């Protein structure tokens, strides 16, 4: 056996902790993957010898920079921003940009690491990256957001490119922010390329990119239920978040006959006992995207609903749950409550919403549990299709894209089944399946390159 801290799982995790002090989210993401990969590579010396997991868990590079901008009162403001380019073994770095006060280097390193496996699972040629800033867009005017985005891109443009690294949206970055960043990139380089995805339809965006993550997470849930002869129809669904992913997951679940009873934001959750209809979901989309309001305002418009301040929705009895807000929003006790209340399926629209304890609760209870890197891959998959359309300078029709999204989600589900069988159980281990299938593709490409 090669001399390396690959030799045993605990030694490997201790090494990751030692090399990444003060980065708990990154360590958590690596640990969750390593638990499965160690089993898989136990008898595969080539991966040990080449130290593949150790290399994937060390970003190719982390660019860190200052972003100065002026607010509407003329005050000079200073923010931090990063781009983490984790791994480009199978394609250009690809992954979103997040604007949120909780953004740190640790958060972006965990997201770029997860993205590497997720992008491999889509079957499209995309490596893993992620970027963002601790800038808080809440309460900022359009002018302030524009000046911030332009200032950020004035530095970021050096490190990205249509064949190098292709950012997109994430928390706090939607159509408005992508527009401002794309405009500045084009102005700085005098090039019109597919350097960002999630663009407006007028300037190279793809149909269904906006819907893709939430719809894809729902299709993944549907695929899992189908293995047990079940469906979404007639089931009560609990969803967290009220942004892009949550509203589109709610929309697709509702279309498929599920009864969605909650949405949330960082201030609390709304419980609507009558369920969210399309009309109500459209109202929430308008609230978030145009009026930039808070989910608590929902109860003023829809009187039978209740707002629960400072709480997450996991105590509401349901059969299906989709965490679609942020990392570590579903803890061990929440997972136990969901299982005790009869939840049979969890599909993660967000990235790493369930903490390690919660993951083990779901695994031990043997419910249908899809990790974010598999379940929410629909967004980046349609981003990959946007890149293809931009390169070919064509636009595909909606029906074609809808079909491709469903096919890609079914393909990811099949990959999870291939590597996630559980001896003696009819419920697969989707976490193990996703980790191994994603790892294998990236690892085999890295082996082909030698020691680089
Ligand atoms: P949005 O900015 O559109 O919405 C984020 C939602 O999550 C808001 O309701 C927000 O509430 C809530 N939220 C954010 N931070 C926190 C927090 N610290 N505590 C509680 N609630 C919080 O982002 P998206 O919908 O795009 O992203 C949601 C999740 O999905 C993220 O984990 C993201 O990484 C993941 N994802 C997104 C993809 C995409 O295509 N957009 C693709 C794949 C995954 P508030 O307004 O109060 O902050
Ligand atoms: O976490 C994610 O997959 C995203 N935020 C989408 C990334 C992308 O490049 O579309």
Describe the structure.
With 452 residues, the chain is α/β, with parallel strands linked by helices. It has three domains: 3-56; 61-192, Leucine Dehydrogenase, chain A, domain 1 (Rossmann fold), CATH 3.40.50; 211-375, 3-Layer(aba) Sandwich (Rossmann fold). Helices cover 47% and strands 15% of the residues. The chain is built from 17 helices and twelve strands. The strands form two sheets. It has a seven-stranded mixed β-sheet with strand order 9-8-7-6-10-11-12. A hairpin with a 5-residue loop joins strand 1 and strand 2. Helix 9 (244-255) packs antiparallel against helix 10 and helix 15 (377-392) packs across helix 16. The longest helix has 22 residues, at 398-419. The protein is globular. It starts with 8 loop residues before the first helix and ends with a helix. The mean pLDDT is 97. (2Z)-2-iminopentanedioic acid (2IT) is lined by residues 94-96, 115, 118, 168, 170, 197, 351, 379-380, 383.
Q: Could you write a compact summary of the structure shown?
A:
This protein is an alpha/beta fold and about 450 residues long. The chain has helices at about 10-20, 25-40, 45-50, 50-55, 105-120, 140-155, 175-190, 210-225, 245-255, 280-290, 300, 330-340, 355-365, 370-375, 375-390, 400-420, 430-450, and strands spanning about 60-70, 75-85, 95-100, 130-135, 165-170, 235-240, 260-265, 270, 305-310, 320-325, 345, 370.
């Amino acid at each position: 056996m090669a001399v390396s801290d690959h030799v045993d799982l605990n030694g490997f995790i201790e090494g990751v902790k030692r090399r990444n002090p003060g980065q708990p989210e990154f360590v958590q993401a690596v640990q969750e993957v390593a638990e499965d990969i160690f089993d898989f590579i136990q008898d595969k010396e080539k991966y040990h010898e080449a130290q593949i997991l150790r290399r994937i868990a060390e970003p190719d590079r982390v660019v860190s920079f200052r972003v100065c901008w002026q607010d509407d009162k003329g005050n000079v403001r200073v923010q931090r921003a990063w781009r983490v380019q984790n791994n480009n073994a199978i394609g250009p770095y690809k992954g979103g940009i997040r604007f949120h006060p909780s953004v740190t280097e640790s958060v972006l390193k965990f997201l770029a690491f997860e993205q590497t496996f997720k992008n491999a699972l889509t079957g499209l040629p995309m490596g893993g990256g992620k970027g963002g800033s601790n800038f808080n867009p809440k309460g900022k005017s359009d002018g302030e957001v524009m000046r911030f985005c332009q200032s950020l891109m004035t530095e970021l443009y050096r490190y990205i490119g249509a064949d190098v690294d292709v950012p997109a949206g994430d928390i706090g970055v939607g159509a408005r922010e992508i527009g401002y960043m794309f405009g500045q990139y084009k102005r700085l380089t005098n090039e019109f390329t597919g350097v960002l995805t999630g663009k407006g339809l007028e300037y190279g965006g793809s149909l269904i990119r906006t819907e893709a993550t939430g719809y894809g997470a729902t299709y993944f849930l549907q695929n899992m239920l189908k293995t047990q002869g079940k469906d979404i129809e007639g089931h009560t669904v609990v969803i967290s978040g009220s942004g892009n992913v949550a509203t589109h997951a709610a929309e697709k679940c509702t279309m498929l006959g599920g009864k969605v009873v909650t949405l949330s934001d960082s201030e609390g959750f709304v419980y609507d006992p009558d369920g969210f209809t399309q009309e109500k979901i459209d109202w929430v989309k308008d609230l978030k995207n145009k009026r930039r309001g808070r989910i608590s305002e929902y109860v003023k418009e829809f009187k039978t609903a209740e707002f629960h301040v400072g709480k997450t929705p996991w105590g509401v009895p349901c059969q299906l749950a989709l965490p679609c807000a942020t990392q570590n929003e579903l803890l061990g006790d929440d997972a136990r409550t969901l299982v005790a209340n009869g939840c049979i399926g969890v599909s993660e629209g967000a990235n790493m919403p369930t903490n390690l304890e919660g993951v083990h609760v779901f695994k031990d209870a043997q419910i249908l549990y899809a990790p974010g890197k598999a379940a929410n891959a629909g967004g980046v998959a349609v981003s990959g299709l946007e890149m293809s359309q931009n390169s070919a300078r064509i636009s595909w029709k909606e029906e074609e894209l809808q079909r491709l999204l469903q096919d890609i989600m079914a393909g990811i589900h099949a990959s999870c089944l291939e590597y996630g069988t559980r001896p003696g159980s009819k419920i697969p281990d989707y976490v193990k399946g996703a980790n191994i299938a994603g790892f294998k593709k990236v690892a085999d490409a890295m082996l082909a390159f030698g020691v680089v």
